[in-house]
Amino acid sequence: MYRLRVRLALVAVIASVMAGSLQAEHVYKKAAAVNDLMAYMVKPAMDQIKVFREAGGPADKDEWQTAYGAISMVTEAAQLVLMDGRVKDDAWSDGAEQVIEAARSAMLGAYRMDANGYSSSIRQMQTGCKTCHDVHKKDKE
Ligand code: HEC
User: Fold this and answer.
1) CATH number of the domain enclosing 46
2) CA 132 to CA 57: how far, in whole Å?
3) How far apart are CA 17 and CA 103, in angstroms?
4) Does the Cβ of 35 fall within 6 Å of ligand 1?
5) Would you say residue 126 lies in a domain?
6) Can you tell me which atom of ligand 1 is nearest the CA of 95?
7) Whole domain around residue 60: which residue ranges?
8) Three-point CA angle 131, 137, 138, nearest 5°
9) Res. 141: pLDDT tops 60
10) What is the pLDDT of residues 65-92, one digit of tens each?
């Protein structure tokens, strides 16, 4: 009986340690300045999207995949500007949230190779950039 209780107690300890380690999320800690997120994550992605736009849109499966990947970087960057104390005011968080929502929809458009859905979502996404930039970017678009 004693042994069984010890064994049960051990199992309980192991189970709670495992549950703990499964739940322990990585804590995000910012490394990049917002300007660098823009310059090295958002801008290269937008440059790629612009190349496709000037050519009349992504032309084949590979290009749609590239467009999808580029927009996914913009989506990630827009989440990063909301994290670890970067938010400055409502224009900041509203702008970033608009970008995230529209960028997700543009990703879906790219995934489906749906040119209309994709382009209108990209335009919407740029409204989100402007919402934040109007207040926080010195040389406005
Ligand atoms: C939450 C606010 C916010 C959002 C949303 C945002 N930006 Fe920015 N962006 C900034 C800030 C802040 C700067 C730096 C402004 C400065 O220092 O003058 C910046 C700078 C930039 C720059 C200049 C980077 C350089 O080379 O120095 C580019 C390009 C840029 N943003 C593109 C975008 C695009 C495209 C989007 C939308 C997809 C976007 N940004 C969305 C805040 C934002």
Assistant:
1) 1.20.120
2) 26
3) 38
4) yes
5) yes
6) 5
7) 29-136
8) 140
9) no
10) 999 999 999 999 999 999 999 999 999 9
Residue 8 lies in a domain: no
Q: Is 21 near ligand 1, meaning CB less than 6 Å away? A: no
Give the count of beta carbons closer than 10 Å to the beta carbon of residue 121: 22
Closest ligand 1 atom to residue 138 Cα is 18
- Alpha carbon nearest to ligand 1 atom 37, residue: 129
Candidates 106, 96, 105; CA nearest to 130 is 96
Note the pLDDT of residue 23.
Answer: 74
Dihedral sign (CA 48, 49, 52, 54): negative
Decide if pLDDT at 132 tops 80. Answer: yes
110 contacts 67 by C-beta, under 8 angstroms:
yes
Instruction: Say yes or no: CB of residue 78 within 6 Å of ligand 1.
Output: yes
User: How many domains does the structure of the chain reveal?
Assistant: 1
Contact 95, 129 (CB under 8 A): yes
pLDDT digits 0-9 by tens, 27-69:
999 999 999 999 999 999 999 999 999 999 999 999 999 999 9
Residue with CA closest to ligand 1 atom 28: 38
